[in-house]
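User: I want to check something. If I give you two sequences, will you return the structure for each one separately, not as a complex?

Assistant: Yes, each is folded on its own. Here is the first sequence with its structure:
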Amino acid sequence: MERQKFVDTLSILSPSIDTSAVYNILKPTLEAEPTSIFWSGLFEFVERSVEKDRIVVELEGKSVESVKIVEEVERQRRELEERAREMEQRMREMESESLQRVEEAVG
């Protein structure tokens, strides 16, 4: 009964935790100490786990944000390179047209 209560509570509080493994680790404490002390320890453990998960998610979010920034910079760099190629091509065309006009005028 106590084990199921523990597993159910832990699952609700922090779904990402392997409740059976945690129970097995804490079982000696559960058997040795009064239930109230055990539960206060459990809630402290869960609070720390949830805080750790929040920090990991926050860091992963920043990593994702950083990747998005890098991708955006790369996209803009590619666009600028493409525009530079287009401008270079246009300059060559204009130069060629100018030379043609000069040749026709001198002609």
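And separately, the second sequence with its own structure:
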Amino acid sequence: SLSPRAWRVPSLRVAASPSTVLALAAGAAAAPVPAVPGSPLSDREYEKFFARLHPPWQANMFCLLRQAYGCLSPSILRLDRAENHGEIPKDLCSHIFPAPLHQRI
């Protein structure tokens, strides 16, 4: 009688290193979905977005700009576009900060 070892077909045995398995798994992953203009950033994209606002005083400066000028500041508009894949969602600024207080009076 044949031993179980003799039943194996040598051409079907594959030895793969962990790095090979990871590389194959990464290649088999679905392709990233293209961003829709006006959609929010993914977690990874937010990490990159906020990395540009370092040191913390720079992020604070943009908060102060938004409070002072609302969405009329070109810097705030650039950030809003960057945060929403190039397009500011309709009415994003109208209900948050439509205009500085002195312009609403």
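Because they were folded independently, the notes below concern the second chain alone. The first helix runs from residue 4 to 7. Residues 5 and 13 are 12 Å apart (CA to CA).
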